[in-house]
Every structure is written in structure tokens, then in C-alpha cells.
Amino acid sequence: MTNSDMAQRQKGFLGFIERLGNKLPDPVMIFVWLILALMVLSTIGAYLGWSASIPFSGDKAPPFSTLENGVVTYTADSLFTQENITRLLVDMPKTLTGFAPLGVVLVVMYGAAVAERTGMFSALIRSSLRNAPKAILTPCVAVIGMLSHHASDTGYVVFIPLAALIYASVGRHPLVGVAAAFAAVSGGYAGNITPGQIDVLLFGFTQEAARIIDPEWTMNPIGNWWFIVAIVFLFTPIVWFITDVIVEPRLGKWGGTKDTEIAAELAKSEVTEAEKKGLKAAGIAALIVIGLFAALALWPGYTPLIDETKTGPAQLQPFYSALIPGFFLLFLATGISFGIKAGTVKSDNDVVRMMGEGIRSMAPYIVFAFFAAHFVAMFNWSGLGPIAAINGAEVLKSWDLPTPILLVSVLLFSSVLDLFIGSASAKWSALAPVVVPMFMLVGISPEMTTAAYRMGDSYTNIMTPLMSYFPLILAFCRRWDSTYGVGSLLALMLPYALCFMVAGILMTAGWVHFDLPLGPHAQVHYSR
Asked: Looking at residues 182-197, what average pLDDT do you find?
């Protein structure tokens, strides 16, 4: 990029957003500063005697609290006390390894790494998009784009440029394909047909936060299933309408034709016979894994995934907890089956190597998790998390705001943060310890709070040049139009983002108003 290009890119409001965001430190350093600020604040709180109390029906006080006459009290405790400094240094390994999101993400990643590196995800995406009927190409792109979230980076690296090629091959402007695919993959990040890695990751943070109020609360990885499916059904017609009615006419008729270069690139993306055999084998493997889990829950007299000592939804808690290794086995079995047939797995050494490469790619997350784990733990040690949640809940009760307004406020706050901090896990790990317990105290379930956050974190992805894949998408655009700049891409995506925002707010508010279930045994409201 030339100096003149950079100067043009830095102009106006979007330039201001980019300059401001670029001054923010890495998410890891954000948590370092948050920890230092927390230590100072805890000392101030302990000196001023900050505390909060709530009725408690249990016999044993939650960690870092006192119980007397049916009332549990949290008192601010300085993180500089001898006890907390000892806990910080002596328990440092345990603090990291006890951090729930780290374990669940690594378990799932062992399987997902194999599925990705064997080429299964790429072949699945290419197979799905290339066979899309021309008349419904745009809605197919929208649905496949949201499904591609299971494929991690493949959605950006493979799917978006492939969409441009497919559009060009049928005589439509390739930038229309980029816009539709980018809107689905990034703007529709909260939507999907089935839960996946992101559900496991975010609910890990939710669980840590919810246990401030309810130490027995255990995450349900499919607790947002119906919500994320509804997003697919809501966002798909929006993508279709905006793409075909607004974006394509604005871009005008494409002057290019299906030349030999496009044909050659499409030929490279064609699914080979070996890959087709691999996909068939992967489908069989998926059915076997699903059948195995069904048998462990339904086989008469042998139900390891059902707690027969409980009644109602509590019986299914082992099943929900087992979904994390279930995702691991599903990705692993399908990846290996595909790789054997496609020729990308020739021995068990290949599988082990792919797992190792997957974990190496997680190194930045593991570094981040170290500091996030200590921030969350130290928040609990200080007592400031429960104190903020309890006092914040009292304020919210005094305002007597409708529940939809409370959740929309979380949605909007997360969308503003997303303009500057791209990592969904980084934002949620910092927000969850306050908003999840606070909303639990006013009767809103952790699942609903998580769903509202996810919606807000989704649509702004395509509105900010600070999104990690934004430069890559810009490069895709310049392959078809060398004059494209940051402002051009933002203007291209703004109609999607604004419509997603309005639809997301209305959907979240409506979901609460009609008290719809968020997923299996996951409700809007929470009662202690």
C-alpha cells in the first residue's frame, strides 16, 4: 500500500476508528492491564469496605464468601494480601489448568485439526457451493457461509474467493459473490445449523461466570441451538435481498467474461473423485458417531449418558457434558475417514502430526488463556465480581427495565466493543464475570445472556477494518477491481451490517418477549 493510499484510508470517521483501534494493545496485554487495574481496585474496595449480600438457601457458603442466617455476604478483599499473593504464585499452574474454556477448546481442537488438515472441510465447502443452482445461488452462499464456521479459517480462505469465482462463472459480478459470502461468514458469525467449537468456547466462559452465583451451574454446549438456527433463517433472506436488489445493481454489470483464467481457477477448486469418496466415508463415520452417542443415552439398561438418579432435564446433564468429547470424536472420525479415502492420511503418524499442528496453531490462544484465567480467578478472589453483580442487579431492579431492553443493551455494548477488539473470546472473558451473574440475579439465564452477546458480536465484524481477516477480504476484492480501498469495502458491506443489526435487535427482543426456548432445556429466564 502506497503512502497516498494509507493517507486516504485514514480519512473520515472510518479512518478515526481504524487509527483508534490500532492504538489498542494486543488482547493479551489488555488482560495484563486489567489484572493490574483489578489489583489496585481490590485494594481500594477492601479499604472502603465494599460488600454485598443476597439470600442463600444452601448449607455451604460459595467460595470467597461468608454464610450467616441464610444470607451469603461477599466482601472486597485486596489482591495484595499475603493469602492472595500466596494463592497467585502457588496455584498458578492450577489456575491455568482449571480454566474451563482452555480444556474444552483443546479437546475439540484435537479432532477439528484432523478434519481441517485432511482437507475435509475444504472439500465439503467446495462441493456444496459448486453444485448450487444458479437461480438460488445467493441464498445457498448465505447458508453455506454460516455453516462454514465449523471449518475455522477455511470459511474465509477458501469459501469467499470461491464464491467470487462461481459468480464470475455465471456472468455475475464477482464482487457480489465476495459481498454475499463475507456477509454470511463474518456478519452471520452467530448463526449455524448445529452447535460447534464457538459454542463450546463461549459457554466455557459463561460457566466460569455463572458459578459466581450458582457453584453447581454446568454449561450446556447446545444451550443456544435453536437461537443460532433461527439466525440462519432470519439472515439468509436478508443476504439474498441485499445482494440481489441493492449490492448487485450498485456495482453494475460486470465487464468481464468467463475466460480461461477463471475456468482454470474453477478447475483447481473442483472436488476430485478421491475427495468425493472421502466425503462419503466421512458421512458414514458421522452417522456411526451419532449412533454411538444415541445408544449410550437410549440403550435399555445401559445409559452412561443419562443420570437415572435425577428427574427432568437434570437427567440429561451427563449427555450435555459429553457433547464436548462428542464433537472431538465426530471431527476426528470424519477427518480420518475422509483422509484415508482421499489419500491425505496414509498412516497413524499423519493423524498425530495433524493433531500436533492443530495445537501449535492454538499457541496464541493458550497464551491468552493464561492471562484470562488469572483475570477471572482473581476477580473471584477479590470478591469484586459478585459485589458488582449483586449491586448492579439491585440497580437494574430499581430501574424496572423490561427484560428485552436489558439484553439489547448487552447486544449493543458487545457490538461497540467489536469495532475495536476482534476476538469474541477476549471480549466475553472480560464481560461475562459481571454481566452473567448480574443478569442471573434479575432472572435472566446465562444461556440468554450469552445469546445476546453473540448476536452483538456478529454483525459488526463486517463494519470494522480491524477485523483480522479484513485485509484478506480486501485483497480478494482487488483481484477483481484494483481500485478497491478500505472505504469501498466498508461501503459494500454496510447495508448488510445495518440490516443485520436491526434484525438482530428485533429477534433478541422478540425471543425474550415470547419466552422461547434457546436450545434443549435452555430457557430465557433463570430462577435460583
From this structure: 91
pLDDT in tens, 332-352: 999 999 999 999 999 999 999
- Residue 361, sorted as left (phi over 0), alpha (psi -120 to 50) or beta, turns out to be alpha
Q: How far is CA 2 from CA 9, 12, 14, 23, 485, in A?
A: 11, 18, 19, 21, 12
Q: How many CB atoms lie within 10 A of CB 446?
A: 27
pLDDT, tens digit (0-9, with 9 covering 90-100), for 55-67: 776 678 778 888 8
Half-sphere exposure of 443 (CA within 13 A, CB side): 10
What integer best gives the mean pLDDT of the chain?
86
CB 82 within 8 A of CB 416: no
pTM to 2 decimal places: 0.81
Instruction: Judge whether 496 and 465 are in contact, CB under 8 Å.
Output: no
- Confidence tier at 137 by pLDDT (50, 70, 90): very high
Phi, psi angles (nearest 5°) of residue 300: -60, 125
CB 196 within 8 A of CB 149: yes
Cell numbers that stand for 199 in this block: 459454542
Q: Which of 415, 408, 438 has its CA nearest to residue 510?
A: 408
CA distances from 268 to 279, 280, 345 (A): 18, 21, 21
Q: Which residue has the cell 443460532?
A: 228
